[in-house]
Design a protein that fits this description.
Length: 348
């Protein structure tokens, strides 16, 4: 059965700043699926290609190679007309709602626009729909008369979510939707997204650099490094028992409230990732992109790109992972409670 969203070997390149250098492969051979009603988290450090994937799905950036399909239809190079038609199925929530909401429009007008574009929706029906949407995202009716500047950051993000949901999309690309919010507001917005998903059956491609946030909302997680998938699988497996040294480093970097545990985690992180300057230098060689930072490298890691292998429900791209013994430190639980959140990843 076809997925709601499917990326197959997606590559996106950007022109290099200098004329002589090769174009940057910001996304390189990424494959993933999002099923209806599911949340797939896309996590990685800054520059790993997360937003580029989101933009390619939305048709804002061109794919250089590979295929993007939505509900079985190839949309990789969809025309503007097809994209316009897709807008009712495919929506986005960005990190900064202030820049994506029109500051001179009251919120009611912003929400009315997509509703009135729908055939057969008159002003009266749109008004009722706006009240329903505001209630769904936990805002009072009179929010419709206020301008974006009169809301807090968390409330503005609720407005952005309401606007995305106004057209009853089947998939929302959430690009760092909570990164600009304080921790307690983050939790409220995450819980809101999860509740709306349970009610409406909408799917999310949820992009964030914080693995704790991603784990809390996602059913499945895809870990990106330099545009390539390092590890993917059920959120609980990937985030609680990370196998790839890079995922282990990401998990160990997530803060925990206890300073003693934090110290132990820092030790794990140091053991997981080399932090030397030389190691931070980009490699575009034939090997594993993580090799310069990895403490487990062998010769093959420098010469050959690792192919994804399946270990239980997880897919890993690592030459050094041995399903029997793992890496020297893989599989062992990280010290202390797992990063924020009280669940073990969400069940589909
Ligand atoms: N328009 C662009 N032109 C040239 N290079 C770009 C462009 N957009 C992104 N890049 C580069 O592509 C790579 C991936 O960027 P991208 O923004 O997708 O990563 P990200 O994981 O979303 O990071 P962040 O969380 O910082 O946004 C980075 O090296 C970035 O500098």
């Amino acid at each position: 059965m076809s997925a709601l969203l499917e990326l197959s070997d997606l590559a996106v390149t950007y022109p290099a700043p200098g004329r002589r250098s090769a174009p940057l492969r910001a996304v390189d051979g990424v494959s993933l699926r999002v099923e209806p009603g599911e949340t797939v988290g896309l996590v990685g450090e800054s520059g790993s290609g997360k937003s580029t994937i989101g933009r390619a799905v939305l048709g804002l950036t061109r794919a250089a190679e590979g295929r993007i399909s939505f509900d079985g239809a190839d949309i990789t190079r969809a025309s503007a007309r097809v994209r316009r038609a897709l807008a009712s199925d495919l929506q986005v929530v960005f990190q900064d709602p202030y820049s994506s909401l029109n500051p001179s429009h009251p919120v009611g007008k912003t929400l009315a626009e997509p509703l009135l574009r729908r055939k057969g929706t008159g002003r009266e029906r749109a008004g009722a729909e706006i009240r329903r949407l505001l209630a769904a995202v936990g805002l009072p009716d009179d929010a419709a008369d206020r301008h974006p500047a009169r809301f807090s950051g968390g409330q503005r993000q609720r407005v952005a979510i309401a606007r995305a949901l106004a057209v009853s999309p089947r998939l929302v690309v959430c690009d760092e939707p909570v990164s600009a919010l304080d921790v307690s507001t983050q939790a409220q917005v995450i819980n809101l997204l999860a509740a709306l998903q349970a009610e409406l059956g909408v799917a999310y491609l949820f992009i964030a650099h914080d693995i704790a946030v991603v784990r809390h909302i996602s059913h499945r997680v895809v870990v990106l490094y330099r545009g390539r998938v390092m590890e993917s699988g059920p959120a609980a497996e990937v985030c609680l028992r990370p196998s790839h040294p890079y995922t282990r480093a990401l998990v160990a970097a997530a803060p925990v409230p206890d300073p003693a545990l934090q110290r132990k985690r820092r030790q794990v992180r140091r053991a997981s990732v080399s932090t030397s300057t030389a190691a931070a230098v980009a490699v575009d060689g034939p090997g594993c992109p993580f090799a310069p930072r990895c403490p487990h490298t062998a010769e093959v890691c420098w010469s050959t790109r690792p192919a994804p292998t399946t270990v239980g429900q997880v897919e890993l791209s690592c030459h050094r992972y041995d399903p029997g013994s793992g890496h020297p430190d893989a599989g062992a639980p990280l010290p202390g409670p797992s990063p924020a959140g009280n669940g073990h990843g969400r069940q589909p």
